[in-house]
Specification:
The chain has two domains: 48 residues, no CATH class; 177 residues, Rossmann fold (3-Layer(aba) Sandwich), CATH 3.40.50. The strands form two sheets. Strands 1, 2, 3, 6 and 7 form a five-stranded parallel sheet that branches. Strands 4-5 form a two-stranded antiparallel ribbon. The chain is 30% helix and 14% strand. The chain is an alpha/beta fold and 229 residues long. Bound molecules: zinc ion (ZN). The site of zinc ion has 8 residues, from loops.
Length: 229
């Protein structure tokens, strides 16, 4: 993002002051990060606490997707930004997370031609509790030139809350939880799917499986963060 704000951006930033995605403090010239990639998103205190996933091994065996792009670790300032979104229901961290995901997709999947861009769906129950699907919010702000369909997959309503389960129970619970939504056709297509956090890989595996069973040629994934150390 450019450091030179347009007039419209200046007015918008006065009406809706930008907050740090991690700690929520208001950002101004005096306290925003000096890092050009993080300015407008993180404050000077939080930016050094950001832990990037680059160089970390988050590749899981036997996954159903071709590859996964992940910019951040679920730790430090990134984790705080995700907690703000998922549990404090503060969507102010979405532009930061989406910006990170977009950059990683552009770098890691350079040259890959995607046919459809989608996200991991939520159940109606979790949508009604939280009010939004955080994976979709992030995906909606990712600016790539690919036709999107954020309702491509449907999640079975009976799958419950994943993060309270252990790895084996989570995988069993989630294995058949996703299916192609009615009226969709993915035959021969290359799909890019966005999720919030890679924990065990079970969710992305299940989504990839559903897409491949429906005839997709290949599935690529992107997550804002990895919880795998
Ligand atoms: Zn901060």
């Amino acid at each position: 993002m450019s450091k030179n704000k347009s007039e419209a951006d200046k007015i918008l930033s006065i009406l809706f002051p930008q907050k740090c995605a991690s700690c929520g403090c208001y950002l101004g010239k005096e306290n925003e990060s000096d890092d050009i990639l993080l300015a407008h998103f993180l404050c000077k205190n939080c930016a050094p606490r950001l832990i990037r996933a680059e160089g970390k091994n988050y590749d899981l065996p036997h996954h159903g997707y071709e590859n996964v792009a992940i910019p951040l670790c679920y730790d430090g300032a990134g984790k705080d930004a995700m907690l703000r979104l998922k549990f404090a229901l503060d969507i102010g961290s979405v532009p930061f997370l989406a910006n990170e995901v977009e950059r990683e997709i552009r770098t890691k999947f350079y040259g890959v031609k995607f046919d459809t861009f989608t996200c991991v769906p939520a159940t109606k129950l979790s949508l009604s509790k939280r009010g939004f699907n955080q994976s979709q919010l992030i995906a909606e702000r990712v600016g790539i030139d690919v036709p999107y369909d954020f309702s491509l997959l449907t999640k079975d309503e009976s799958t419950g809350v994943q993060h309270k389960l252990g790895a084996a129970a989570r995988r069993l619970n989630i294995e058949n939880a996703y299916s192609l939504s009615p009226g969709r056709d993915v035959v021969g297509k290359t799909i890019l799917i966005v999720d919030d956090i890679l924990t065990t890989g079970a969710t992305l595996d299940a989504c990839s499986r559903a897409l491949r069973l429906a005839g997709a040629r290949a599935v690529y994934a992107a997550c804002a963060m990895t919880a795998i150390q």
